Amino acid sequence: MSWIELSIDTTNEAVDWVCTLLAKAIAVEDMHISEYQEESSQWTFTIQMYLPEDARIHQRIDEIEKILTPLNRTGMTSGLQTFILDHKPVHIALESHTASSLIRKIGDRFVVLSATSDYQAHPQEIVLRLQNSLAFGSGLHPATILSLRLLERHVKPNLDTLDLGSGSGILSVAMAKLGAKVLAIDNDPIAVSATQDAVERNQVTQQVTVKEASLGSASQLGHWMGGDSIESVPAIAAQKQFDLIVANIFARVHISLAPEFYKALRSTSTHSGILITAGYTSDRSENVSSAMLEAGFLECDRAQIDEWIAIAYRLG
Protein backbone atom coordinates (compact mmCIF):
# COMPACT_ATOMS: atom_id res chain seq x y z
CA MET A 1 0.00 0.00 0.00
CA SER A 2 1.19 3.51 -0.81
CA TRP A 3 1.13 6.29 1.79
CA ILE A 4 0.69 10.04 1.48
CA GLU A 5 3.00 12.21 3.60
CA LEU A 6 1.56 15.63 4.44
CA SER A 7 4.11 18.17 5.65
CA ILE A 8 3.57 21.57 7.22
CA ASP A 9 5.92 24.01 8.95
CA THR A 10 4.81 26.00 11.99
CA THR A 11 6.03 28.47 14.60
CA ASN A 12 7.07 27.76 18.18
CA GLU A 13 3.97 29.47 19.53
CA ALA A 14 1.52 27.63 17.30
CA VAL A 15 2.82 24.04 17.20
CA ASP A 16 0.58 22.58 19.92
CA TRP A 17 -2.45 24.48 18.66
CA VAL A 18 -1.87 23.06 15.16
CA CYS A 19 -1.67 19.53 16.60
CA THR A 20 -4.93 19.99 18.50
CA LEU A 21 -6.73 21.08 15.34
CA LEU A 22 -5.25 18.20 13.36
CA ALA A 23 -6.58 15.73 15.93
CA LYS A 24 -9.95 16.16 14.20
CA ALA A 25 -8.66 14.71 10.94
CA ILE A 26 -5.79 12.30 11.60
CA ALA A 27 -4.78 9.62 14.12
CA VAL A 28 -2.17 10.72 16.67
CA GLU A 29 0.09 7.75 15.93
CA ASP A 30 0.36 8.94 12.30
CA MET A 31 1.99 12.28 13.20
CA HIS A 32 5.63 13.21 13.69
CA ILE A 33 7.13 16.53 14.89
CA SER A 34 10.72 17.54 14.18
CA GLU A 35 12.73 20.75 14.44
CA TYR A 36 12.85 22.87 11.31
CA GLN A 37 16.23 22.56 9.63
CA GLU A 38 16.97 26.12 8.40
CA GLU A 39 18.14 28.34 11.28
CA SER A 40 17.26 31.67 9.63
CA SER A 41 13.66 30.71 8.89
CA GLN A 42 10.53 31.93 10.68
CA TRP A 43 9.52 28.29 11.22
CA THR A 44 10.53 26.25 14.25
CA PHE A 45 8.89 22.85 13.70
CA THR A 46 7.88 20.60 10.83
CA ILE A 47 4.82 18.40 11.33
CA GLN A 48 4.53 15.33 9.12
CA MET A 49 1.33 13.31 8.84
CA TYR A 50 0.80 9.96 7.12
CA LEU A 51 -2.38 8.72 5.46
CA PRO A 52 -3.01 5.50 3.48
CA GLU A 53 -3.67 6.20 -0.19
CA ASP A 54 -7.22 4.90 -0.33
CA ALA A 55 -10.56 6.00 -1.80
CA ARG A 56 -10.97 8.77 0.82
CA ILE A 57 -7.50 10.27 0.55
CA HIS A 58 -8.47 13.38 -1.43
CA GLN A 59 -11.41 14.09 0.89
CA ARG A 60 -9.18 13.77 3.96
CA ILE A 61 -6.52 16.07 2.50
CA ASP A 62 -9.19 18.66 1.72
CA GLU A 63 -10.45 18.44 5.32
CA ILE A 64 -6.95 18.99 6.70
CA GLU A 65 -6.32 21.95 4.38
CA LYS A 66 -9.62 23.52 5.49
CA ILE A 67 -8.67 23.14 9.16
CA LEU A 68 -5.27 24.73 8.60
CA THR A 69 -6.34 27.58 6.29
CA PRO A 70 -6.97 30.22 9.04
CA LEU A 71 -3.58 29.54 10.66
CA ASN A 72 -1.86 29.69 7.29
CA ARG A 73 -3.62 32.97 6.51
CA THR A 74 -2.36 34.51 9.76
CA GLY A 75 1.24 33.39 9.13
CA MET A 76 1.37 30.67 11.80
CA THR A 77 1.89 27.80 9.34
CA SER A 78 3.28 27.22 5.88
CA GLY A 79 1.22 25.77 3.07
CA LEU A 80 0.51 22.02 3.11
CA GLN A 81 2.85 19.87 1.00
CA THR A 82 2.10 16.30 -0.13
CA PHE A 83 4.42 13.41 -1.08
CA ILE A 84 3.73 9.81 -2.17
CA LEU A 85 5.64 7.10 -0.22
CA ASP A 86 5.90 3.34 -0.68
CA HIS A 87 5.57 2.74 3.07
CA LYS A 88 5.08 4.58 6.36
CA PRO A 89 8.39 5.64 8.00
CA VAL A 90 9.58 3.52 10.94
CA HIS A 91 9.95 6.55 13.26
CA ILE A 92 6.17 6.81 13.65
CA ALA A 93 5.96 3.51 15.53
CA LEU A 94 8.97 4.42 17.65
CA GLU A 95 7.45 7.79 18.59
CA SER A 96 4.16 6.15 19.59
CA HIS A 97 6.03 3.78 21.91
CA THR A 98 7.88 6.70 23.53
CA ALA A 99 4.64 8.64 24.11
CA SER A 100 2.93 5.66 25.75
CA SER A 101 5.64 5.40 28.41
CA LEU A 102 5.84 9.12 29.21
CA ILE A 103 6.83 10.05 32.77
CA ARG A 104 7.54 13.75 33.22
CA LYS A 105 8.22 15.43 36.60
CA ILE A 106 7.36 19.13 36.74
CA GLY A 107 7.97 21.50 39.64
CA ASP A 108 8.31 20.04 43.12
CA ARG A 109 5.25 17.77 43.12
CA PHE A 110 3.64 17.21 39.71
CA VAL A 111 4.23 14.03 37.71
CA VAL A 112 2.65 13.88 34.23
CA LEU A 113 1.92 10.35 33.00
CA SER A 114 0.38 8.92 29.87
CA ALA A 115 -2.79 6.89 30.29
CA THR A 116 -0.91 3.58 30.17
CA SER A 117 2.18 4.44 32.26
CA ASP A 118 2.89 2.14 35.20
CA TYR A 119 4.25 4.40 37.93
CA GLN A 120 4.33 4.18 41.72
CA ALA A 121 3.97 7.74 43.02
CA HIS A 122 5.65 8.96 46.20
CA PRO A 123 3.31 10.32 48.91
CA GLN A 124 4.16 13.97 48.21
CA GLU A 125 3.75 13.69 44.43
CA ILE A 126 0.64 14.77 42.50
CA VAL A 127 -0.01 12.54 39.51
CA LEU A 128 -1.60 14.01 36.37
CA ARG A 129 -2.61 11.17 34.05
CA LEU A 130 -3.52 12.10 30.47
CA GLN A 131 -4.73 10.34 27.38
CA ASN A 132 -1.93 9.70 24.85
CA SER A 133 -2.39 12.75 22.67
CA LEU A 134 -0.66 15.59 20.87
CA ALA A 135 -3.47 17.92 21.92
CA PHE A 136 -2.45 21.28 23.33
CA GLY A 137 -1.32 21.06 26.96
CA SER A 138 0.30 17.62 26.75
CA GLY A 139 2.65 18.44 29.62
CA LEU A 140 5.70 18.59 27.39
CA HIS A 141 5.31 22.08 25.97
CA PRO A 142 7.26 24.78 27.87
CA ALA A 143 4.12 26.92 28.26
CA THR A 144 2.37 24.06 30.06
CA ILE A 145 5.36 23.35 32.28
CA LEU A 146 5.58 27.02 33.27
CA SER A 147 1.85 27.15 34.00
CA LEU A 148 2.14 24.14 36.29
CA ARG A 149 5.07 25.67 38.16
CA LEU A 150 3.12 28.87 38.86
CA LEU A 151 -0.04 26.97 39.78
CA GLU A 152 1.94 24.98 42.32
CA ARG A 153 3.02 28.25 43.95
CA HIS A 154 -0.33 30.05 43.94
CA VAL A 155 -3.25 27.60 44.09
CA LYS A 156 -4.64 27.04 47.59
CA PRO A 157 -7.39 24.68 48.79
CA ASN A 158 -10.99 25.82 48.23
CA LEU A 159 -10.16 28.64 45.78
CA ASP A 160 -12.70 29.20 42.99
CA THR A 161 -10.62 29.00 39.82
CA LEU A 162 -11.04 29.33 36.05
CA ASP A 163 -9.02 27.49 33.40
CA LEU A 164 -9.55 29.55 30.24
CA GLY A 165 -8.64 27.55 27.14
CA SER A 166 -8.42 24.25 28.99
CA GLY A 167 -6.97 22.24 26.07
CA SER A 168 -6.02 18.76 27.30
CA GLY A 169 -7.33 19.55 30.80
CA ILE A 170 -3.95 19.17 32.49
CA LEU A 171 -4.13 22.54 34.27
CA SER A 172 -7.70 21.95 35.44
CA VAL A 173 -6.73 18.58 36.91
CA ALA A 174 -3.65 20.12 38.55
CA MET A 175 -5.70 22.84 40.27
CA ALA A 176 -8.28 20.31 41.44
CA LYS A 177 -5.57 18.08 42.92
CA LEU A 178 -4.19 21.12 44.73
CA GLY A 179 -7.61 21.46 46.36
CA ALA A 180 -9.29 24.13 44.22
CA LYS A 181 -12.75 24.20 42.68
CA VAL A 182 -12.39 24.59 38.90
CA LEU A 183 -14.44 25.84 35.98
CA ALA A 184 -12.72 24.59 32.80
CA ILE A 185 -13.79 26.25 29.56
CA ASP A 186 -12.66 26.12 25.94
CA ASN A 187 -14.27 27.20 22.69
CA ASP A 188 -13.09 24.13 20.77
CA PRO A 189 -15.19 20.94 21.17
CA ILE A 190 -12.12 18.71 20.74
CA ALA A 191 -10.46 20.45 23.69
CA VAL A 192 -13.65 20.25 25.78
CA SER A 193 -13.80 16.48 25.19
CA ALA A 194 -10.11 16.11 26.06
CA THR A 195 -10.61 18.08 29.27
CA GLN A 196 -13.61 15.99 30.29
CA ASP A 197 -11.62 12.81 29.63
CA ALA A 198 -8.74 14.10 31.78
CA VAL A 199 -11.11 15.07 34.62
CA GLU A 200 -12.73 11.63 34.65
CA ARG A 201 -9.42 9.79 34.21
CA ASN A 202 -7.98 11.61 37.24
CA GLN A 203 -11.15 11.21 39.34
CA VAL A 204 -11.70 14.91 40.02
CA THR A 205 -15.23 15.21 38.62
CA GLN A 206 -16.55 16.53 41.95
CA GLN A 207 -14.20 19.53 41.77
CA VAL A 208 -14.14 20.37 38.05
CA THR A 209 -16.97 21.60 35.82
CA VAL A 210 -16.19 21.44 32.09
CA LYS A 211 -18.01 23.66 29.57
CA GLU A 212 -17.73 24.70 25.94
CA ALA A 213 -17.72 28.45 26.61
CA SER A 214 -15.69 31.65 26.61
CA LEU A 215 -15.13 34.52 29.03
CA GLY A 216 -16.92 37.76 28.26
CA SER A 217 -15.99 39.20 24.86
CA ALA A 218 -13.69 36.25 24.05
CA SER A 219 -16.56 34.83 22.01
CA GLN A 220 -16.11 37.77 19.63
CA LEU A 221 -12.47 36.88 18.91
CA GLY A 222 -13.35 33.81 16.85
CA HIS A 223 -11.85 30.38 17.40
CA TRP A 224 -8.67 30.93 19.49
CA MET A 225 -6.81 28.33 17.42
CA GLY A 226 -8.10 29.44 14.03
CA GLY A 227 -10.72 26.72 13.63
CA ASP A 228 -14.40 26.82 12.83
CA SER A 229 -16.84 29.54 13.87
CA ILE A 230 -17.88 29.58 17.54
CA GLU A 231 -20.96 31.79 17.31
CA SER A 232 -23.00 29.39 19.46
CA VAL A 233 -20.49 29.24 22.32
CA PRO A 234 -21.96 30.89 25.44
CA ALA A 235 -20.11 33.71 27.16
CA ILE A 236 -19.50 33.71 30.91
CA ALA A 237 -19.88 37.18 32.35
CA ALA A 238 -16.91 38.66 34.22
CA GLN A 239 -18.42 39.39 37.64
CA LYS A 240 -15.70 39.03 40.31
CA GLN A 241 -16.45 35.32 40.75
CA PHE A 242 -12.93 33.79 40.63
CA ASP A 243 -10.02 33.77 43.06
CA LEU A 244 -7.55 32.62 40.40
CA ILE A 245 -7.56 32.41 36.60
CA VAL A 246 -5.04 30.53 34.49
CA ALA A 247 -4.93 31.09 30.72
CA ASN A 248 -2.44 29.24 28.52
CA ILE A 249 -3.42 30.85 25.20
CA PHE A 250 -2.14 33.17 22.46
CA ALA A 251 -0.73 36.55 23.46
CA ARG A 252 -3.35 38.37 21.37
CA VAL A 253 -6.13 36.79 23.45
CA HIS A 254 -4.44 37.79 26.72
CA ILE A 255 -4.14 41.36 25.47
CA SER A 256 -7.76 41.54 24.30
CA LEU A 257 -9.17 40.07 27.51
CA ALA A 258 -7.04 41.96 30.07
CA PRO A 259 -9.90 44.20 31.32
CA GLU A 260 -12.27 41.24 31.61
CA PHE A 261 -9.72 39.14 33.46
CA TYR A 262 -9.57 42.00 35.98
CA LYS A 263 -13.38 42.17 36.27
CA ALA A 264 -13.66 38.40 36.70
CA LEU A 265 -11.25 38.23 39.67
CA ARG A 266 -12.03 39.09 43.27
CA SER A 267 -10.05 39.83 46.41
CA THR A 268 -11.00 38.75 49.91
CA SER A 269 -9.52 39.39 53.33
CA THR A 270 -7.29 36.32 52.93
CA HIS A 271 -6.55 36.20 49.20
CA SER A 272 -5.93 38.68 46.39
CA GLY A 273 -7.13 37.61 42.95
CA ILE A 274 -4.40 36.04 40.80
CA LEU A 275 -4.11 35.79 37.01
CA ILE A 276 -1.55 33.37 35.52
CA THR A 277 -0.78 34.05 31.87
CA ALA A 278 1.16 31.67 29.59
CA GLY A 279 1.29 30.51 25.99
CA TYR A 280 3.56 33.21 24.55
CA THR A 281 7.27 33.93 24.13
CA SER A 282 9.42 36.68 25.62
CA ASP A 283 9.12 38.83 22.49
CA ARG A 284 5.40 39.25 23.30
CA SER A 285 5.75 39.56 27.08
CA GLU A 286 6.06 43.36 27.02
CA ASN A 287 2.81 43.67 25.06
CA VAL A 288 1.01 41.35 27.46
CA SER A 289 2.42 43.12 30.53
CA SER A 290 1.44 46.55 29.20
CA ALA A 291 -2.14 45.40 28.69
CA MET A 292 -2.30 43.88 32.17
CA LEU A 293 -0.82 46.94 33.90
CA GLU A 294 -3.24 49.19 32.02
CA ALA A 295 -6.13 46.99 33.21
CA GLY A 296 -5.00 47.44 36.83
CA PHE A 297 -2.91 44.34 37.50
CA LEU A 298 0.44 44.19 39.30
CA GLU A 299 3.03 41.56 38.42
CA CYS A 300 3.74 39.20 41.32
CA ASP A 301 5.60 36.20 39.88
CA ARG A 302 7.12 34.82 36.70
CA ALA A 303 8.85 31.73 35.31
CA GLN A 304 10.77 31.20 32.08
CA ILE A 305 12.16 28.37 29.93
CA ASP A 306 14.32 29.60 27.05
CA GLU A 307 12.12 32.08 25.14
CA TRP A 308 8.87 30.88 26.73
CA ILE A 309 7.53 32.88 29.67
CA ALA A 310 4.62 32.76 32.13
CA ILE A 311 3.71 35.73 34.30
CA ALA A 312 1.41 35.91 37.32
CA TYR A 313 -0.45 39.11 38.18
CA ARG A 314 -2.52 40.11 41.18
CA LEU A 315 -5.27 42.69 41.45
CA GLY A 316 -3.91 46.19 42.05
From TrEMBL:
- Supply the alphabetized keyword list: Cytoplasm, Methyltransferase, Ribonucleoprotein, Ribosomal protein, S-adenosyl-L-methionine, Transferase
Known InterPro entries for this protein? Ribosomal_L11_MeTrfase_PrmA, Ribosomal_PrmA_MeTrfase, SAM-dependent_MTases_sf
Q: Name one GO biological process term.
A: methylation
Keyword Transferase set for record? yes
GO cellular component terms attached to this protein's record = ribosome
Q: GO molecular function: any one?
A: methyltransferase activity
What Pfam families does the database record attribute to this sequence?
A: PrmA
The family annotation for this protein states: Belongs to the methyltransferase superfamily. PrmA family.
Output this protein's name: 50S ribosomal protein L11 methyltransferase
Recorded source organism is: Pseudanabaena yagii GIHE-NHR1
